Amino acid sequence: MEELYKRNTMSNKGHTPTPGPVADSPQPEPPPSAKKGFIQIVGDFWQLITALVGIVTVMFAGVTYFATREQLIQLTCMTNTNLNVATYASQVEQLRIQIELADMELDTLFKARKSGLPEYQRKQSDIEGYRTAQKKKIDQYDQEFAKLKERVCESKPAEKKP
Q1: What is the secondary structure of 3-24 as a DSSP string?
Q2: Rounded to 5 degrees, what angle do the CA atoms 78, 81, 86 make?
Q3: What is the pLDDT of residues 38-69, one digit of tens each?
Q4: Are 127 and 145 in contact (CB under 8 A)?
Q5: How far does CA 109 lie from the centroid of its chain?
């Protein structure tokens, strides 16, 4: 192996290019092309271009990752509507129970005839008040449920805040 190395290195000794008119004369530069000019500009400003691409990428990621104001308004609307539907149903049920209890008290007052007419009338007006409140809650429930069915929150335009 050593012999092969010596033989290759020895054969190259003394074979250096000789200076002459062809080797020393300046070679004409090729005409600059648009492609080479662009590559040279990119090569000179590659760090700046890399930084700009990074900044634009981060801005794009931030805009697409976080919710917009319109999406937050839609989310708020949907949350409020769902909460109203859930609470109105329980409020209607509570009013129904209050009406039943008041009816039982009214029957008890009527059967016992212990109390006078004013207390009996007051209980009847309480029952009418409960029924009115129940009707109002049922209407509110129907309106909120219709909002959910019609997807009102999704088609609502974004409200501009000053």
Answers
A1: HHHHHHHHHTTT-PPPP-HHHH
A2: 125
A3: 777 777 778 888 888 999 999 888 878 777 78
A4: no
A5: 59
Whole-prediction pTM: 0.45
Give 91-140 pLDDT, tens digit per residue: 888 888 888 888 888 887 777 666 567 777 888 888 888 889 989 988 88
Contacts of 110 (CB under 8 A, 6+ apart): 120
The answer to whether residue 35 sits within a structural domain is no
Q: Judge whether 119 and 108 are in contact, CB under 8 Å.
A: no
Domain that holds residue 141: 69-155
Whether 31 is in a domain gets the answer no
**Both ends of the chain: CA-CA distance in Å?**
86
Instruction: Give dist(CA 65, CA 81) in Å, integer.
Output: 25
Rounded to 5°, the CA angle 74-76-78 comes to 70
